[in-house]
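Lab notebook, entry 282. We have the chain sequence and a SMILES string for S-adenosylmethionine, and the next step in the workflow is to get a structural model of the bound complex before anyone spends time on docking refinements. Request logged below.

Task: model protein plus S-adenosylmethionine, output structure tokens.
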Amino acid sequence: MPRTDSPPTRNPRPVTTTPDPAGGVEQRSEAAAEPAGSGYADAHAADYDRWFGKPGITGATVDALAGLAGSGPVLELGIGTGRVALPLARRGLRVHGIDASEAMVRHLRGKPGGSEIPITMGDFAEVGAPGPFSLIYLAGGTFFELPDSRAKQRCLAAAQARLQHPGGVFVFDAHLPEALAVAAASGVPEVVAETDEHLILCHRRIDASTQTYHSHYLIHESDRTRHLRVAFHYASPGELDLLARRSGLRLKQRLGSWAGAPFTRDSTYHVSVYEPATPEQP
Ligand SMILES: C[S@@+](CC[C@H](N)C(=O)[O-])C[C@H]1O[C@@H](n2cnc3c(N)ncnc32)[C@H](O)[C@@H]1O
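Result returned:
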């Protein structure tokens, strides 16, 4: 979700961390070429759950993913603070994660059950985690944090190679570009959250020339207002399906929400489920 303009403070090399008895971090995997992820995650890890936790949506997300997971194991790309992964693990699934933000993972580790989740530190475009998995997923619009179509294609191909065959699925959620454009043109900011403690407004600005949108979050809390500017690289469902096909995946199901709403002409969002393609499936 949010990405600030502050410079990313990424670990230069991916590190695979697995739980140790003391809840520490100990195992290392191969090196990454470039830093990945978003600087907001390091800068605002302590605020993330408070600002963007959304219990209702989280519950629907966890229910949907649990229904797709079979008996596991599952892998979350961009596991963050464990908003989705920890409730899934509490349902008895073996959950692995990848993230580039040590700050976000530190918060995950501090939660009940957080020390037991194996996490690979690095760029999830490479999906550098062992498999095979029954489910590989992203939540919270995280797939659009990949900066371009090439990174998306790499991620899809790597995920395909780590899915159980048959039966494994790759799932993510995303905004529809058309709906983003309509909302941006209205000039009316979205109320992201409103509680007794804070008010969060978001205005998104689209740049079709780069296929990006910037989300401007205004967060008013404790008599202080902060401005987070966040960048995403978007793609239409058709482009995503094409990238998936080039990566050996095919669309299995597309819904309009994690709660299972049908995908229709009125949808503003989608949850897309891909499965490995076979030679018989054109
Ligand atoms: C919006 S947060 C979502 C966290 C969690 N999935 C959730 O739904 O609550 C996105 C997470 O993805 C991570 N991230 C973004 N791009 C990444 C990349 N290319 N490689 C690894 N992690 C990345 C960020 O560090 C952050 O923790």
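Notes for the group: The domain at 15-175+236-276 is CATH 3.40.50.150 (Rossmann fold). Worth checking against the assay data. Residues 18 and 118 are 4 Å apart (CA to CA).
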